[in-house]
Design goal:
Blueprint (H helix, E strand, L loop, with lengths): L3 H9 L14 E3 L1 H11 L8 H14 L2 E3 L2
Amino acid sequence: LPPTAELIRRELKIKKGSAKPNLEKVGKLSKEQLKKIAEIKMPEFNTTDINQAMRIVAGSAKQMGIETDI
């Protein structure tokens, strides 16, 4: 499976995350997009709860300067 950051970039069709994630936002993931990525990554995550998996993906997105609907 590709890394979570790669799946997020593909979903938003961006080349890379923000150089300053806390200042410059480069996109936004909807709940549906978070769920889609979480479902792909579920086998690698240490949880069977889709909501927890979505929070893991949202955390990765935040580190890239991407806002989320969670």
